Amino acid sequence: MNVLFSVHPKFATAIQEERKDIELRKTNIKGWNPGDIAFFYATSPIKRVVCAATQGDHYTSPSWWLVTLPEYLKRICVSEEQAIHYLHKVYEAHLYELKTPVGFCEPVKIENPPQSFRYLTKDESVLLIYKLYGVPHE
After folding, report:
1. Cβ–Cβ under 8 Å, residues 44 and 111
2. How far apart, in whole angstroms, are the C-alpha atoms of residue 119 and residue 4?
3. Residue 71: CA atoms inside 13 Å, Cβ hemisphere, count?
4. How far apart are CA 135 and CA 35, in angstroms?
5. I want to staple 20 with a disulfide (CB 3.0 to 4.6 A). Which of 9, 37, 77, 84 is the partner?
6. Taking a C-beta distance cutoff of 8 angstroms, is the pair 16, 53 a contact?
7. Which residues pair with 102 in a beta bridge?
8. pLDDT tens for residues 62-91?
9. Per DSSP, what are the bridge partners of residue 23?
10. How, if at all, do strands 37-42 and 48-62 pair?
11. Domains of the chain as residue ranges with CATH
12. Burial of residue 88, with CB atoms counted within 10 A of its CB: 0-12 exposed, 13-18 middle, 19 or more buried
């Protein structure tokens, strides 16, 4: 199942530039499996779907342990302080490896972007894949 994440523009850019290859989340995204696609909606001021990546491995880690590992924080593109703030009161952190990021030639405006993430229907996924690769569609 494909998903749509809302991320700050700096993280969307880091994904496209392959500097960010792990997506950190507070909750497990059930049904999103290795090989499925994540689309990334860059929040204000961009307000568009700007890139996509395929999910690699999924790791679960105690949040207190994660913040002690600078190599993971670098791959997530956050500082130790930012990770502590984000994971405050969360026992488990979920790390999703991102593979083969691709940027949209023309970022896509969507109705009702997610607050954090949402699952995409098959039709939504197909439409975004067509737009990602510039394939004409009806």
Report:
1. no
2. 6
3. 0
4. 21
5. 77
6. no
7. 52
8. 877 877 788 889 999 999 899 889 988 888
9. 96
10. antiparallel
11. 3-133 (2.30.130.30)
12. exposed
Q: How high does pLDDT run on average in the chain?
A: 92
Q: Identify the burial level of 100 via C-beta atoms within 10 angstroms of its C-beta, where 0-12 means exposed, 13-18 middle and 19 or more buried.
A: exposed
Residue 104: both structure tokens together: 């949209």
Task: Give the Cα separation of 42 and 110 in Å (integer).
Answer: 11
Looking up tokens 């790791």, which residue turns up? Answer: 59
Total length of the chain: 138
Q: Output the pTM of the full model.
A: 0.93
Q: Which amino acid is at 78?
A: V
Neighbour order of strands in the sheet with 92-108: 22-25, 92-108, 48-62, 37-42, 3-7, 117-119
Q: Which residues 6+ apart lie within 8 Å of 122 measured at CB?
A: none
The residues, ordered by sequence, that sit 6+ positions from 35 with a Cβ below 8 Å of its Cβ are: 54, 55
